[in-house]
Amino acid sequence: MAAPRSWVLWSFCCRGWSRVLPSCRLPGLRSSWPRGPLGARPLSQEKRATETHFGFETVSEEEKGGKVYQVFESVAKKYDVMNDMMSLGIHRVWKDLLLWKMRPFPGTQLLDVAGGTGLAWVLGDAEELPFDDDKFDVYTIAFGIRNVTHIDRALQEAHRVLKPGGRFLCLEFSQVNNPLVSRLYDVYSFQVIPVLGEVIAGDWKSYQYLVESIRQFPSQEEFKEMIEDAGFQKVTYENLTSGIVAIHSGFKL
């Protein structure tokens, strides 16, 4: 979704790469990530060889980033079509509600992580954002944070790059709070969504990962606590569509 020209929006794709696309190079931000006018920071080369989950599969932390990247490379061409089909278009309402909560004003510095579109597009690592401290007014991430290997690190980075008074907003799949809806949702998720993925996108496995990754994501309360642990205050959340998704909000105070 394009931002009005009065906004300043950095759309940041969390694929674990430490370079800027040649077609969208930004002034003062070079592929080696030196500090510059945009506050780029070098990415660490250190990785821990411990295990994590990729859907219901156990993989090493080093593997997960590549596997997630392959999923989104595979589904990219049919991504928007599949979103409309899977949610019957409701995902657009969820995103509109996120924007309504954001309420940006002229001059607002926005960072949209895992978005992939915007006025300026940077590829990098959500766990080590290539920006200086206290740079942005608002940090948003929609349907992206559950794909990050270390959610706690991504939250800490969100806190670091926000200005004092800045706001964190996350739209993500969550846990359904209605038992009947939950049972129906499970059947739809595991029996229908992968089939749609195969028929429309020619990719069963990626959409099987999608539904599995949702089940692995923390509950609304657990994620709220993680956001607070990262340093945010006044953390709240709002369930949408019986908790199929939730919007979490917090402030850097």
In what range is the share of β-strand residues? 15-25%
The CATH H-level superfamily of the domain at 89-174 and 217-252 is Vaccinia Virus protein VP39
CATH-derived topology of the domain at 89-174 and 217-252: Rossmann fold
> What is the CATH architecture annotation of the domain at 89-174 and 217-252?
3-Layer(aba) Sandwich
Which parts are unreliable, with pLDDT below 50 for 5 consecutive residues or more? 1-10, 12-48
| DSSP helical segment count | 7
Major sheet size, sense and barrel closure:
7 strands, mixed
- C-alpha termini separation: 29 Å
The overall pLDDT, averaged over residues, is 79
Q: Quickly give the structural class.
A: alpha/beta
Helical coverage, percent range: 25-40%
The ordered string of helix (H) and strand (E) elements is: EEEHHHEEEHEHHHEE
Overall spatial form:
globular
Rg calc = 18 Å
How many beta strands in the DSSP annotation? Answer: 9
Main-sheet strand order equals: 5-1-4-6-7-9-8
Q: For this structure, what is the CATH class of the domain at 89-174 and 217-252? A: Alpha Beta
